[in-house]
Amino acid sequence: MNFLRKITLVLSGIFIVGVAALAVVFIYKQLIYLPRAIEKAGSNTLTVDFVIEKGESVKSIARRLEEIGVVGDDWVLVNYLAKKNLDKKVEAGHFRFGGGETIPDVALILQMGEATQTSLTILEGWNSFEIDAKLVELGLIQPNDFALFVREGGGEAGNKEGSFAANRPVASLEGYLFPATYKIDPRNFSVDDLASRMLQAMERNLREAGWSSETSNISLHDALTIASIVELEESSNENRPKVADILWRRLEAEMGLYADATLFYTLGHRENLTAEDLQIDSPYNTRKYKGLPPTPICSPSLSALRAALHPELNDFWYYLHDSDGQIHFAKTLTEHNENKAEYIK
Predict the structure, then answer these.
(1) Whole-structure pTM value
(2) Can you tell me the distance from the alpha carbon of 191 to that of 120, in angstroms, rounded to the nearest whole number?
């Protein structure tokens, strides 16, 4: 009995000491460590874009933030969010950390980060000046900031070593930027960042469209230029490959492309062309000058990229659109003139 009593007393003592130790650790972490750690910034000093996936737990989010140095201790973030009843309010989305945030800063970004972002839609067929106008409308830039950035070379984004656009024959990035909807943070917006993301998107879509520098017998610049013309010359996905084939063959035969879309580009509008417009002396006037214009004329869609890279062989050499936008093909100039007489009012 005495032996069992001693064992019981020893175990009880160990238990009490263990509980006391845990209590000390708990009190230390909650009353001393936590308040200090909350105000301590993470080791990250760079701008970091962070994505939370739907259904991801707060513990997983905190662990990943610790791994990239946004927070110093994931436990501190989890406890802070729980104490503030914010742990259930962290939702999926895109967030940006600028470096040097404390735990309350991180918590605020996790609550407000997605809300501070807005969707920027770059429409298929827009050129750099049209994109510029949209950015001005949203209050993100001053007029011409984006357009001049693109046409003067795109800074670091447009000349990154190894980039698909690095060896382009002209300075301008016109036509190398993919039209899509992008999430942006107005507080941290920069034309360089947007151009970089649009370049990356174009590279992905070129691969999806089947572009390969190793196997293609045409230059990427020419392909993007044809795609940009196809984008504005024909809206139907069904007919775009036919139009692309006509343009490629006219180019090979050293015929004028006679693509009015290139004239609209240099004129800066898309209204009806006048006789005076048709005579304008510009390398973008493909009625006056044979060959391709110096640059693409807009941001082409995936459909236009596919058409330019995979043209549909046909016997037509001419096409025109009627007042309803329907396209009419012709094999000979005589047929084309007959179409003009019938469909152009």
Answers:
(1) 0.69
(2) 13
- Could you tell me if 227 and 313 lie in one domain? yes
| Tokens describing residue 138 | 């949203």
Q: Are residues 339 and 295 in the same domain?
A: yes
Q: Provide the terminal-to-terminal Cα distance of the chain, rounded to the nearest Å.
A: 115
- Report the CATH number that the domain containing residue 73 is assigned in CATH: 3.30.1490
- 250 plus 309 within the same structural domain: yes
Report the pLDDT value the prediction gives residue 6, as an integer from 0 to 100: 63
**Within-domain flag for 160:** yes
Residue 308 token pair:
């330019």
Share of the chain above pLDDT 70, in %: 88
Are 250 and 256 in contact by the 8 Å Cβ rule? The answer is: yes
The model's pLDDT over 277-332, given as tens digits with 9 standing for 90+, comes to 788 899 999 999 999 999 999 999 999 999 999 999 999 999 999 988 899 999 99
Residue corresponding to tokens 């000979």: 332
HSE at residue 129, side-chain half, CA atoms within 13 A, is 7
pLDDT in tens, 320-331: 999 888 999 999
Output phi, psi for 109, to 5 deg. Answer: -65, -40
Q: What is the DSSP string of 280-302?
A: ---TT-TTTS-S--SS-SS---H
Last residue of a domain, one of 69, 91, 112: 112
Q: Helices (H), strands (E): how many in the chain?
A: 15, 6
Q: Does residue 269 lie within any of the structural domains?
A: yes
Where in the sequence is the domain holding 171, given as residue range(s)? 118-209
Give Dmax over CA atoms of the chain in angstroms: 120
- Cβ pair 116, 187 in contact under 8 A: yes
Q: What is the pLDDT of residues 114-166, one digit of tens each?
A: 556 778 999 999 999 999 999 999 999 999 999 999 999 878 777 877 788 88
d(CA 79, CA 107): 11
Interatomic CA distance for residues 92 and 194, integer angstroms: 22
For residues 230 and 302, is the Cβ–Cβ distance under 8 A? no
